[in-house]
Queue: 3 jobs
Job 1
Amino acid sequence: MYTQGLDIPKGETSIPLGSGESPEAARFDAIMAADEKIEPKDWMPEGYRKTLIRQISQHAHSEVIGMQPEGNWITRAPSLRRKAILMAKVQDEAGHGLYLYSAAETLGVSRDELVEQLLNGSAKYSSIFNYPTLTWADIGAIGWLVDGAAIMNQIPLCRCSYGPYARAMIRICKEESFHQRQGYELMLSLARGTPEQKAMAQDALNRWWWPSLMMFGPHDTKTDADGMKSQHSEQSMRWRIKRVSNDELRQKFVDVTVPQAEYLGLTVPDPDLKWNAETGHYEFGPIDWEEFKNVVAGNGPCNAKRMKQRRAAHENGAWVRKAALAYAEKRAKRQAAAA
Ligand code: BYC
């Protein structure tokens, strides 16, 4: 059974795998070298398969758990327009989860197995969804910053070497783009509203900024005092699963987002933030990796609540799954009888 974490078999630490060892391995190497797609029936190294199952399933779980912080505000949206937009967005996240579970299934893992890993707590999902949505402005901040960070991370995944994941990402990115825009538009309305509304927008930016930077994952190479370093990036980039590193994506996100905050008239909560004309990038302060580790370990402000709600939703949905199975069986019997 697939387990989370670093379990890439020894001897599969880099590609090329050793073309010539077997015709299949040589073909895999050739596909990588030509920057073409690996498809489900193609031979692939076990480590490649496991890395993809890990990343795609974590991504799917993130989309599913990610419905909760925003779903929390559907009944309290301040207008019918905002409610309709938010409902559409949350439904999109459910859809993303489903495309991604389907993409993971093409790698030979069952959806039941993946869902079980989420429910029993052995699977990870993005740290960002363990923070609370305290005010309506948080809905704007999530769209602007969280979906903004997600797009930055996911656009390169549209060029991932695994075909089903790359194709799922194309549609997801189109939808994420709408999500980001609605979030920014919401923030703009608040920033141009009453002083209280502007203060609410600033407070949301203050709380979501640093967790959004953490979404990109640990640093690429630096081993900080706390030992934070991306474990998988190097190999995943060789396999063309990841195309751009965690730090590069984080920097791109900061460079794009700081001027957006300025346009809103809001202040990014980082006293060290400054433009470096020589590098053409913003410099920013240190990330609190202790907080990240704590949240990923299950001790964030909302981890327990998110998991409790997901387990309850799964149990409450048991009758739907049972009914769908019974209907599928009945239909198969009818079709067999008619044939
Ligand atoms: N949170 O070696 P690294 C959305 C883990 S949903 C938790 O760099 P990798 C949305 C990492 O898993 C957006 N854990 O890993 C939905 C690894 O642990 P394991 C979700 C994190 O995989 C609803 C360890 O740290 N996006 O858009 O090469 C509403 C070492 O990291 C995090 C995706 O899932 C984190 N933030 O790179 C609104 C994108 N970061 O597995 C919006 C797809 C790292 O060894 N995923 N870890 O136990 C990716 O691009 C990559 O998996 C990551 C991490 C960049 C996230």
Job 2
Amino acid sequence: MNQLSHFIDGQNVTGNSGRFGDIFNPATGEVQAHVPFASESEVDDAVQSAGQAQVSWAGTNPQRRARVMMEFVRLLQRDMDKLAATLSREHGKTLADARGDVQRGLEVAEFCIGTPHLLKGEFTASAGSGIDMYSMRQPIGVAAGITPFNFPAMIPIWKLAPAISCGNAFILKPSERDPSVPLMLAELMQEAGLPDGILQVINGDKQTVDAILGHPDIGAVGFVGSTPVAQAVYSQATAAGKRAQCFGGAKNHMVIMPDADLDQAVDALVGAGYGAAGERCMAVSVAVPVGENTANDLISRLIPRVENLKVGPYTAGDDVDYGPLITKDAKERVLRLIESGVHEGAELVVDQRSFSLQGYENGFFVGPHLFDHVTDDMQIYREEIFGPVLSTVRADTYEDAVNLVTDNEYGNGVAIFTRDGDTARDFTDRINVGMVGINVPIPVPLAYHTFGGWKKSIFGDLNQHGIDAFRFYTRTKTVTSRWPSGIKEGAVLNFPTLD
Ligand code: NAD
């Protein structure tokens, strides 16, 4: 059995807590590795040495830190196939999708090559007589990231690259379901020239997360995962005086207007609804056709497309559209939710509840499902399913569609498909969702914009990547300076003004 490790002070370190988790091959259902779960004292050791290493890293000029990131990008490109294969073996997503996972992370590391520019700060000459004023961005010290299973390359890089570029040391606690790629990322950072201790990968579960959140020397926590955990981590971290940004779950709608190009809309729904088995926080899980004719036409075009999706292991290459879910529990939960939809009266127009894949009967595969006539009080509408299940909620009017999206408790992504510029403009203006697509189903912003939802999809103020990441991982210090030649008056007891 393959025994995974932690990565501490530039070395792979076997854990000593005596606690381990199983890593499955989701396609076969077999356990393929064990991962150690770090104890509180192991977390403490890693934070201590990270704190010591951080001092000289923060003193390394930003251009040199950026060069490490530049080399990291090159190494990610060099090892793309190896990373993607490892990622697919643990996560189950197709190889093409795994490459996209690495690529979207790489692009944030690429953005971080601009660190010297991004950290320049602000300067005002002669803010008062003989007085200059400047603001600088200084690192937090030791920051931590807690990441989900569904993007085991992209999201760790979204956290570690900006944090480290800003001069912090970083403690990464990746998902215990697929930690091999995060461990490989740490080795690549080391090869790129990162000093020992600046990136520590600590594996574990809730107990390990609690040790991170309770550690007094960790100044900032970035979390991505499900909403209940995001909310709890945010409360715990901020109550302990840490800066926190916690990104949660989603229920993303796609509104299809009567004037939309329906073929384009169907392509978009198939890709965004079922890609990666629906295990994406930006997956479209609710189709909202406006008007009876649009709904009937959409459903009749969708059914054959969904029925013909090819489900299988990543090893089948291009013959597969999507792979298994991450665990047996995840599969059983999705199947339970499908049953609840049927029970509550939704119409299951593509029903693959009996789906089984020959030769992979113990894998965590779920066939594609399509619901019509879903209503907003049903469990399948209210909960994030995180599986290959698309729900159709029919809206009578555009206003009904807007109200449905507005009233939903999540606000990560949303899309509208229309040919009408006025409608698209009105929609983007009024909708209370963080990322909006116009004829684009998965509007994930590029690295130099920021990523984040609204409502219960986020706890905290700043988004991920783009300029917000540089704000999150630094503190502002503002200096007002005057040299002796400018000091003319005596003691001033009034509150100073510079006019
Ligand atoms: P999860 O909440 O189960 O786990 C996320 C991380 O938290 C993992 O590292 C896990 O070990 C840790 N964790 C789990 N339970 C915990 C607890 N009780 N206390 C403390 N830590 C705990 O999420 P997941 O299943 O790994 O990922 C899927 C979820 O992540 C979905 O809800 C998805 O929408 C969301 N997600 C959101 C975004 C975003 O940017 N908004 C991006 C990707 C995924």
Job 3
Amino acid sequence: MVPQIRRRRSLVIQKKFLNKFLVKPGKPVYLKDLDPGWASHKDLLDKFGEERVMKLAKKILKRNLENLAEAQNLLWASDTYGVLVILQAMDAAGKDGIIRHVMSGLNPQACQVHNFKKPTNDELDHNFLWRYMKNVPQRGRIGIFNRSYYEDVLVVKVHPEYLDHQKLPPGIKGENIWKHRYSDINHFEKHLTRNGIIVLKFYLHMSKEEQRKRLLNRLNNPAKHWKFSDSDLPERAYWDDYMKAYEDALCATSTEWAPWYIIPSNHKWASRTLVADVLAGTICNLGLEFPKISADRRKRLEAARIQLEGEIEELAEGTMSA
Ligand code: AMP
Ligand code: MG
């Protein structure tokens, strides 16, 4: 029997801490009350100071990435579940860095990342979930959505004129459109989980001041100019509208089957550690095992082994008699 993946308890974030970041289904969300600069449990910080806590977090991250690589192998071999990771955030909150970290060490065959930008005309001509549905990971794989169908209740809610790019039937574009989209999303995610796709959603919570520093850093550093987009400042001007849209969406779409985590992201090491821990923990807790080999199949494997060993002997005999 192949052992399941075990995580060393000392290098795992306790569930009671992770639960702090989980959005309880139906509970209102007030982002102003959640500290984006959270770096650790207060007792831990008081006792060890930020420097040592950061070192520990990095150790936990490293361990979780090793766990994740093993867990992904099992996910691939058992071919029963897939995992869809959704990352949503304001610009410069660290989505790309999280993807880079989480993907490092994974088997590229069994993972995929999709970035969703402004929809094309072809995409706008379809139902709003269409372009995302096509990219849901297969069983056995981890798929990451860098932005997702949540943009259709975030950026589109902040800029309702985007709806004019779609020829929707009369009566659809009223105030109820958001409620209907939340409901469509909840049903879609239910459909995914019923088909073995686990949905994990992370909102990277960063302060407006932290975004200012990071954007400025991009402008001050020529090597980072390519990261700065002309839309970054205009979108930043809508900060409060985005926060409201996020609060509404997080509350309406955090469900038992597809929960949202609000990840404090002013410290990149904290957000990376938390996301990797939730992801590794979720896959490890599935209790997966490598496929069992039947007695009949074991006999056939043994026959194949004997045949291949026989080929070496034949080759050796051939070489000697030549
Ligand atoms: P980035 O991920 O920063 O490279 O930017 C992608 C841009 O595409 C962001 O400004 C998003 O708000 C925008 N975007 C993504 N999905 C949609 C959507 N469904 N409708 C309109 N804009 C979108
Ligand atoms: Mg951007």
